[in-house]
Amino acid sequence: MGYVYIQSTFLQQTPKLLFSSLNSIPFEGEENNIGIYHVEILNDGKTTIKNINCVIIIEGSIIEDHILSVEPSISYIEIQVEDRFSLEIPMLNSKEKIGVSLLTTSIGELPMKPLISLRGEGVTGIESSDESEVSIIETFRNITTIVTFLGVLISIGIRYYITKE
Questions:
Q1: What is the span of the domain harbouring residue 95?
Q2: How do residues 71-93 score in pLDDT, each as one tens digit?
């Protein structure tokens, strides 16, 4: 019974939802400032992620236009209001990604990076620069699972040895 639990934990496919954003260098105009922001959303896990919601906020700006880079077979709903762009994606398969480019204007100073909130069913998106933190946690989890598995095997071996004599 312990073997089945360990096997299912060890072989479990965990979702991994990442986003990345490059620093923007806003252009200063005579009347207002212009910024171009790029965000990429990636399902880097080994399983499908459903009900993905991404909100991108560029504080103090007006989003004038946007372009999405997405495979034609991936469905989505987009909502753009003032300084906020929302993207709802019903499903992303493993290794599928979506790119978002936003053209913004502002009378004041524009931020170097947008605020990004990303989540899906059972997973919270993380910035890909924070991925090393997640990799350490996943590595620790895998080592713990292997040690537990070995402990169970040793325990079974000891019980077998005792009952054999």
A1: 2-164
A2: 999 999 999 999 999 999 999 99
